[in-house]
Every structure is written in C-alpha cells, then in structure tokens.
Amino acid sequence: MPTVDVLRARFLDHFDGEPQFFRAPGRVNLIGEHTDYNDGFVMPAALEFEAQAAATVRPDRVIRIHSLNNGKSAEIDLDGAKPEPRGDWTDYAFGVAVMLEASGVRLSGADIVVSSTVPVGAGLSSSAALEVVVGYALLSLAGREVDTVELAKLCQKAENEFVGMRCGIMDQFISCNGVVDHALMIDCRSLASRPVPIDQRARIVVANSMVHHALADGEYNKRRQSCEDGVRLLRPALGEIRALRDVSFEDLEENRDFLPDLTYRRCRHIVTENERVLQAAEALQNSDLDTFGRLMNASHVSMRDDYEISCEEVDRLVDIAQAQKGVYGARMTGGGFGGSVVALVESGAVESFIATVRTAYQDATGHISEIFACAPKNGVGPLTD
Ligand code: GAF
C-alpha cells in the first residue's frame, strides 16, 4: 500500500505542487444482500483495502486524474462540453464531479493521482471506494465540510445516473461511514446506522473466488426489476407499500398467487434476508456467534436458490468454508456471479482455515483463492500514513 511519501512522489511524476491526501475503504458485507435497493437492511464493514488520492487545486476548472493502477490519465473541463461517460474507470471519478456540480457545489479544477488496493471484480466495492475518495477530495479542495451521508447519496447517484449501474446505497454508505472494529447496521430507507462490535473471539475472513462472470451488471438490474414487479403486483392486495421492505413473510405467503413463481422467489429472498439481517444484528450485539453464523449460511442458500446470484465456484468455496473447524458461518458477499465469500471464524482457527480452504478450493476448481482476515476500518477521511 503506498504511504503518503510514495503517493507524493508518484503525484510529482505527473503534476506540480504539494498535494493533500485522502483515503476511502472497500467493504465486505456480512449479511443483507440486494436488500439495499429494497429500502431494507444491510450489515457491511469497511476493509483495510482502500482507494487513496493525492490532490491539488488548479487555477482553472479542469480536473485531471491519473491512476497508478493502470497508468492511464484523463481529464474533463467543468466549463467545457458536458462530460459524457466513457465506459471505463474514469466514469466513477468524473461522475462524482458532475453530480457535485449538478447539486450546486462549485468545484475548482484539480490534479488527482489515485491508487487503490481494493481488488477489482472481487465484490469488495472497488468502484465505490474510488467514487468516495474522489468526492471527498474534490469537496475538501473546494473548502467544504463533508457530510458523509450526503456524500454517499451523491456517489450512488453518480453510479446510477452517470455510470448506468442501478446499485443501492450500501457500498458508498459504508465507504463513507465505516467504524473501526465494527460492522455497521444500516437502515437503507432512513439511512440511520448503528455500529455493532465484532466479538474479539471471532474474525471476519474474506476469500476471493477469483471468478467474476461478465453477466453481473445485466443480471443485477434484472433482479432489481423483479423486486419492483413484485411490489407492483402485491400493491392491490397490500395497499400502498413502497418497497419490499414493507412486506412481511406472512404478507408474501398469503399473496403469492398474485406473483409469477420467479418473481415470488426473488421477493422471498429479499423479505427473508431483511428478517435475517435484523436477527443477525441482535445476535452480534449479544455475542451470539452461533446464531449469527447460522443466519449467514441461510443467507447463502437464499441467494443461491431463490435469488440465483451465486455460481458454481462460489458455491464450492462456501461449502468448503462452512465445512472447516471453527467456522460459525459463510456466505457469498456482494452483488454476485462470482466475487468473494465472507466467513466468521474463531480467532484461533483463522490460520488453519486460510491454509485448508485455499488448498481445497484449488483442488476443486484450479483457482488459487486470495484469503485474508479483516479488521474493520473507519470510513473516508484524510490519509495520514
Ligand atoms: C452491489 C451494489 F452496488 C450494492 O448496492 C448492493 O446491492 C450489493 O451489490 C448487493 O447487496 O455491491
């Protein structure tokens, strides 16, 4: 991970002046998948993998950005023609600049070098980390106090409207508001959040399946559509429900005849997952790790069978993880169709868990999983080394 000195040196390879430094983390979601865009509940934690930025103000209104990850540079002129999405990494950065301006913040020009340790395609929110660090940097350079809830909303808007991905708010919210050593229980309707401590007896372990299926974005938007269809079809029976958040399991079962089978199963995942997150928050708060683990396992079954967002490799990795000694539970984490698995593991069993899972997964699939134990970090802020 580049320290401030390394980042300064790389900045000076491309630009002039003494930069300010910022960081924004990636995330792992412990439970609550695809519930965010249904006004529901999620429980992610911020990771030590993060996007970092070194940035200075320019006298004009040009924003120049250079990525140390791919060696590429790009720029936009805020006083020039309206910036259009380019379909690459720059959309996350420039989308945020465009949305900030649209929200009434007058930005100054900036020279920015970005560098990220969040693995791309691993379902750990590399894009949200980039959006958030750039948004925070631009606001700081403009001399603005940063409201981290507003910044999360704005970055989500950039992703929805500029990038064209209809994501919910979880990834941007946790990158903005993560709390060290805690998971964050987030109500995605009110945006109220509550830190829940991770019991010292257990560690969060993330295992990257090393596969990422290309259909992810299209399938993501289809799942979202199914949820919206479900709400529309249930409304005549249930009245003015706004989202699946407003539907209980009993409501769903009583009215399942109004829904085509596929829509019903999609809705069942969301309705039961919301319930699981509420129970999981209580379990973690009470240090009931067995219950928490059982809820993680049940969440995976629901994602695999009802929401159909897992894939063969991830299912293998989950099976292997769940079968290890000292494991409370394991499930796929993130948007799906590949990416990572999260497990809650007894602290004393982490080392053997990592070694055994890596070997067993390689034997089963040929892929070498990157596996690491996490200590949750704080959300976005200045980078101090
Ligand atoms: C992706 C999205 F960006 C999030 O908003 C969330 O829906 C997640 O998938 C699934 O829980 O990371």
TrEMBL record:
<feature type="binding site">
    <location>
        <begin position="33"/>
        <end position="36"/>
    </location>
    <ligand>
        <name>substrate</name>
    </ligand>
</feature>
<feature type="binding site">
    <location>
        <position position="220"/>
    </location>
    <ligand>
        <name>substrate</name>
    </ligand>
</feature>
<keyword id="KW-0299">Galactose metabolism</keyword>
<dbReference type="InterPro" id="IPR006204">
    <property type="entry name" value="GHMP_kinase_N_dom"/>
</dbReference>
<keyword id="KW-0067">ATP-binding</keyword>
<keyword id="KW-0119">Carbohydrate metabolism</keyword>
<protein>
    <recommendedName>
        <fullName>Galactokinase</fullName>
        <ecNumber>2.7.1.6</ecNumber>
    </recommendedName>
</protein>
<dbReference type="Pfam" id="PF00288">
    <property type="entry name" value="GHMP_kinases_N"/>
</dbReference>
<dbReference type="GO" id="GO:0004335">
    <property type="term" value="F:galactokinase activity"/>
</dbReference>
<dbReference type="InterPro" id="IPR019539">
    <property type="entry name" value="GalKase_N"/>
</dbReference>
<dbReference type="GO" id="GO:0006012">
    <property type="term" value="P:galactose metabolic process"/>
</dbReference>
<dbReference type="InterPro" id="IPR036554">
    <property type="entry name" value="GHMP_kinase_C_sf"/>
</dbReference>
<dbReference type="InterPro" id="IPR022963">
    <property type="entry name" value="Galactokinase_bac"/>
</dbReference>
<feature type="binding site">
    <location>
        <position position="127"/>
    </location>
    <ligand>
        <name>Mg(2+)</name>
    </ligand>
</feature>
<keyword id="KW-0460">Magnesium</keyword>
<dbReference type="InterPro" id="IPR000705">
    <property type="entry name" value="Galactokinase"/>
</dbReference>
<dbReference type="GO" id="GO:0000287">
    <property type="term" value="F:magnesium ion binding"/>
</dbReference>
<keyword id="KW-0418">Kinase</keyword>
<feature type="binding site">
    <location>
        <begin position="121"/>
        <end position="127"/>
    </location>
    <ligand>
        <name>ATP</name>
    </ligand>
</feature>
<dbReference type="Pfam" id="PF08544">
    <property type="entry name" value="GHMP_kinases_C"/>
</dbReference>
<feature type="site" description="Transition state stabilizer">
    <location>
        <position position="27"/>
    </location>
</feature>
<dbReference type="GO" id="GO:0005829">
    <property type="term" value="C:cytosol"/>
</dbReference>
<keyword id="KW-0963">Cytoplasm</keyword>
<comment type="similarity">
    <text>Belongs to the GHMP kinase family. GalK subfamily.</text>
</comment>
<feature type="domain" description="GHMP kinase C-terminal">
    <location>
        <begin position="280"/>
        <end position="361"/>
    </location>
</feature>
<keyword id="KW-0479">Metal-binding</keyword>
<dbReference type="InterPro" id="IPR013750">
    <property type="entry name" value="GHMP_kinase_C_dom"/>
</dbReference>
<dbReference type="InterPro" id="IPR006203">
    <property type="entry name" value="GHMP_knse_ATP-bd_CS"/>
</dbReference>
<feature type="binding site">
    <location>
        <position position="159"/>
    </location>
    <ligand>
        <name>Mg(2+)</name>
    </ligand>
</feature>
<feature type="domain" description="GHMP kinase N-terminal">
    <location>
        <begin position="93"/>
        <end position="178"/>
    </location>
</feature>
<comment type="function">
    <text>Catalyzes the transfer of the gamma-phosphate of ATP to D-galactose to form alpha-D-galactose-1-phosphate (Gal-1-P).</text>
</comment>
<feature type="active site" description="Proton acceptor">
    <location>
        <position position="171"/>
    </location>
</feature>
<feature type="domain" description="Galactokinase N-terminal">
    <location>
        <begin position="10"/>
        <end position="55"/>
    </location>
</feature>
<feature type="binding site">
    <location>
        <position position="67"/>
    </location>
    <ligand>
        <name>ATP</name>
    </ligand>
</feature>
<dbReference type="Pfam" id="PF10509">
    <property type="entry name" value="GalKase_gal_bdg"/>
</dbReference>
<keyword id="KW-0547">Nucleotide-binding</keyword>
<dbReference type="InterPro" id="IPR014721">
    <property type="entry name" value="Ribsml_uS5_D2-typ_fold_subgr"/>
</dbReference>
<dbReference type="InterPro" id="IPR020568">
    <property type="entry name" value="Ribosomal_Su5_D2-typ_SF"/>
</dbReference>
<dbReference type="InterPro" id="IPR006206">
    <property type="entry name" value="Mevalonate/galactokinase"/>
</dbReference>
<dbReference type="GO" id="GO:0005524">
    <property type="term" value="F:ATP binding"/>
</dbReference>
<dbReference type="InterPro" id="IPR019741">
    <property type="entry name" value="Galactokinase_CS"/>
</dbReference>
<keyword id="KW-0808">Transferase</keyword>
